[in-house]
Amino acid sequence: MTHRESVPPQVSGPELAAGIGVIFAATMMIVNGIFQIFQGLAAVVTDEFFVTLPDYVLNVDVSTWGWIHLVFGVVVAIAGFYLFSGSRVAGVLAIVVAGLSAITNFAFIPYYPIWSLLIIALDVFVIWGIARSGILQD
Fold it and tell me: Is residue 129 part of a domain?
């Protein structure tokens, strides 16, 4: 009986790029979720932290926005952890959650514009990272 050395397979080219893209997207989703949790906590704990604008199309109380961001931040972070599994379902779920996060933050722009734009940019990079990684292909 001969023993063969167990040599890990070499990963290169597109496979390496796909793995890096998924790791990047998952990490950014977790960071994005934590940011949104803090954003939600700031709105719930201190209602005057965010400035409310009169005559805005979406007239929602700031503490309501806080709960929306708090719950959605947890969902985004959990989807980020799930994306580390590398499954196609995780990739689709992550793209959907990142898209919804971008839409939610777009509606929040009048309350905290620079922060909302930062989160939207992270969501766009997450969607790009997942789409570019090839995780959605057979």
Answer: yes
